[in-house]
């Protein structure tokens, strides 16, 4: 007998923007076979998630146990959702709202980016501004919430096709890494 599908709306507050939280939520939902969406808001990150209660419980547990290293969840607000689930899980465009989410600090270059910087065969070899969702500038580039590239000092710099492909792929570690850049 099939388990009943339930919907849950979750607002995650704390340091959850600019730290790879939306890609993490996407991967966690896909791994568990859940449907819904995630988006940045002025308050933090909003998740609409649908699935059997057992998987929703696993999802909520995973939010805390598997969160990106720079994320700091301070509060979850939950509400039941009615209606049918969407056909898949996706990352939606950010929604504006009152700005109460916390801005993460600038973070030193992570091991994965350092490896690229020192690899002569990598396209980011010796490129000092290499970053991903686990490292790089945040506080010094943000101008407004929600944290999206068009609200940073980098909005004037167009990404090359390769950087844009990384930025657009929910499975890439540079998915929505707002300061994503390369020598191009």
Strand numbers in spatial order across the main sheet: 4-1-3-2-5
Give the distance, in angstroms, between the N- and C-terminal Cα atoms: 55 Å
Q: Which overall shape is indicated by the principal axes computed on the Cα atoms?
A: globular
CATH class of one domain: Alpha Beta
Residue stretches low in confidence (pLDDT < 50, at least 5 long) are none
Number of helices: 4
Largest sheet: 5 strands, mixed
Structural class: alpha+beta
CATH architecture level-2 label of one domain: 2-Layer Sandwich
Binned, the helix content reads 10-25%
Could you name the CATH topology of one domain? Alpha-Beta Plaits
Radius of gyration, whole Å: 17 Å
List the secondary-structure elements in sequence, H or E.
EHEEHEEHH
What's the number of extended β-strand segments? 5
Q: Key terms for this structure?
A:
single chain, Alpha-Beta Plaits, globular, 5-stranded mixed sheet, alpha+beta, 21% strand, 4 helices, 184 residues, 5 strands
Report on the structure:
With 184 residues, the protein is α+β, with helices and mostly antiparallel strands. It has a domain at 6-91: Alpha-Beta Plaits (2-Layer Sandwich). Helix content is 22%, strand content 21%. It is built from 4 helices and 5 strands; from the N terminus they run βαββαββαα. The protein has helices spanning 21-32, 53-65, 111-117, 161-168; strands spanning 5-15, 35-40, 45-52, 72-81, 89-91. The chain has a 5-stranded mixed β-sheet with strand order 4-1-3-2-5. A hairpin with a 4-residue loop joins strand 2 (35-40) and strand 3 (45-52). Helix 1 (21-32) runs antiparallel to helix 2 (53-65). The model has no long low-confidence stretch (mean pLDDT 92).
